[in-house]
Amino acid sequence: MNIAARKLSVGYDGRLVIPNLNTSIDGRGVTTFLGPNGCGKSTLLKALTRLLHSGGVIEIDGQSLREMPLKAVARKMSYLPQQRLAPPEISVEEFVSCGRMPHQGFMQRSTPKDSEIVIWAMEQTGVRFMSSRDVRELSGGEKQRVYIAAALAQQPEMLLLDEPTTYLDIQHQIELTELLRRLNRKLGMGIVLVLHDITQAYEISSEVVVMMEGRVYSHGAPSEVITPAMLRDVYGVNARVVPVEGRPFPLIAYDGLAASA
Amino acid sequence: MPDSKERRVISLRICVPILIAAICLLSLLALRIGSARLSMRQILEALSSTEGPVRAIILDIRLPRVILSILIGGCLSAAGTILQAVMHNPLADPGIIGVSSGASAVATAVFLILPTASRSVPMFAFAGALIACAAIYGMAWRGGAEPVRVVLAGVAVNAMLGGVTAFLMLMNSENLQGVLAWMNGSLNAKSWGQARVMMAYGAVGLTMAALSVKNLNALQMGDEIAQSLGVHVGRVRLILTGISAFLAASTVSVAGIIGFVGLIVPHVARMVVGANHKRMLPVAMLLGACVVLLADLVGRTIVAPVEIPVGIVMSIFGGPFFLYLLRHRKRTGL
User: Fold this and answer.
1) pLDDT in tens, A203-248
2) What is the average pLDDT score of chain B?
3) CA A172 to CA A32: how far, in whole Å?
4) Mean of pLDDT values over B73-88
5) Given CB atoms, is A80 within the 8 Å cutoff of chain B?
6) What percentage of residues in chain B have a pLDDT greater than 90?
7) CA B15 – CA B20 distance, rounded (Å)
8) A88 with B231: Cβ contact below 8 A
9) Test mutation, A98, A162, A163, chain B, max B CBs within 10 A
């Protein structure tokens, strides 16, 4: 699956956050949007899932996104927002079952196949053992996995997540990134993320899109894109990309704010 | 302790039969108790005969009233259940979308300015309820109707209509009897005509409510997740609010304003069976029927032979009960 945006413009209340953006995302890998607060990365993610009205063209596998029925979009991709309402008072299993909606008719009841997929989704994310628990009683990390299970029950080709690791402790962050990587490798599910942690982005991504002021600053493999020059230009910080022996990925060491020109 | 975290919900197989039994029992009591107390034997004898005063009391006076109580309770509870999910707000009640204030303002105007047309008050009240709801949505609309803006516009419109109503009452204070009786929601002196109207409204409104359970479940997860599940959030929210307004407006037009049912009953239903609307909606409807039957029974008997309108009973007992719910719940969310 491939998402392409051409001459994309998105804004809120007449203020354009993204004036004119062109990009193409290969939906087989793990793509991460990086960039400072307000650069438009979350806005771009929402536009790509049709949550926000946008100008220009968005195509999924060559098909115009706006002309697809919402249910068909929902079978192609699932979006997990960063800010969410408190979940309703239902069990984990009921919550995950909601993910089957785009595959069901208006009044259609759940079929045995639906329940099979719900169980599969709970197993993939390791929440099956808590299937009868109240979603509201879960910890932040558990909730995040339940939301991802519901998204998996949608059987999308692509999963889009807005800052999924924010608010999680380091153990749960690692647990989550490993889950996402597994979904990508084993199930071939495309993953698109918005992240703030650049080291994390380096580790998990096959492709990074760096955004600045509503435009694409650079787009490529992490090793090409995550550089001291980019960190200075885009984030305004002095930083080094430090290789660590015995570790496949470098660390980012920050040396303070860059002197403004 | 994983055990303590298991969801404790009561299964529908237990809940529904209990509620239906309660409705039957309360209905039977409502048929027996009144200015003439009837025994079971009298009721059975009267029903097997073809004429007689007892038969008339049961069939023409008490039965329509029982049917109205059941339907009004069910419709108000369904309206509240829908609105609470749509607005993401556990305090949502059909009142906030203007149904009560709109109906009151129009009904008051008809009672006081056109007393000759007071027979058509139900029709006017129904129209007033829906117009007020539309006005609130019109004012809250900005490329969509976000719940917060609807609530705020609702506060403004409700205050305005309340002012209009109070003004009309002040200017015509000598003719207030009819208005007050109507505004306090009474089931007194209802005939089969009104029961039939309510049955028609209820059949339409409750069917539409039942068809909405999946969308209600999706909407209560939040707009973005609902849309990610393929739901046209804006459109669906508007339709569901319309269904809720229709249900509430139909009860208001038949019986006047009965508060608290649409607010409290969904809460209790959610506590008992959880927030999955496949279970919550039917339980709320049945429970609402019980509550209105019981409230009317209390109103008819507590200071007999004087009758207290069911709307007043609901306010007097409903308010404190709502406070009790708030204090004794760990979580007060949806």
Assistant:
1) 999 999 999 999 999 999 999 999 999 999 999 999 999 999 988 9
2) 86
3) 19
4) 92
5) yes
6) 34
7) 9
8) no
9) A98
Which CATH number is B204's domain given? 1.10.3470.10
What is the rounded distance in angstroms from the CA atom of residue A95 to the CA atom of residue A89? 9
Closest partner CB to A107 (pick from B6, B211, B224)? B211
| Residue A110 pLDDT | 84
Q: Do A70 and B227 touch (CB under 8 A)?
A: yes
Task: Let me know whether A130 and A249 are in one domain.
Answer: no
Residue of A nearest to B143 (CA): A13
> Is residue A12's pLDDT more than 90?
no
Tell if the CB–CB gap between A89 and B229 is shorter than 8 Å: no
**pLDDT of residue B4 exceeding 80:** no
Cα A108 to Cα A102, B221, B240, B243: the distances in Å are 11, 20, 19, 21
> Quick check: A89 and B231 CB within 8 A?
no
DSSP assignment, residue B221?
A: T
A237/A175 same-domain check: no
Number of compact structural domains in chain A? 2
B333 pLDDT higher than 60:
no
Determine the Cα–Cα distance for residues A225 and A238; give it in Å rounded to an integer: 15
Distance, CA of B25 to CA of B178 (rounded, Å): 32
* Chain B hits for A94, Cβ within 8 Å: 274, 276
Q: Tell me whether residues A101 and B218 touch, CB distance under 8 A.
A: yes
Is the pLDDT at A146 greater than 90, yes or no? yes
> A139 and A53, same structural domain?
yes
Same structural domain, A170 and A233: no
Same domain, residue pair A32 and A83: yes
In this complex, which of A69, A81, A98 lies closest to B229 when CB atoms are compared?
A98
pLDDT surpasses 50 at A39: yes
Kindly state whether residues A258 and A207 are assigned to the same domain: no
Distance CA A60, CA B56 (A): 69
Name the domain count of chain B: 1
pTM attached to this predicted model? 0.89
The ipTM (two decimal places) reads 0.90
The boundaries of the domain holding residue B176 are 31-327
Q: How many CB atoms lie within 10 A of CB B202?
A: 24
Please give the residue range of the domain that contains residue A26. 2-226
Residues of B in contact with A78 (CB under 8 A): 228
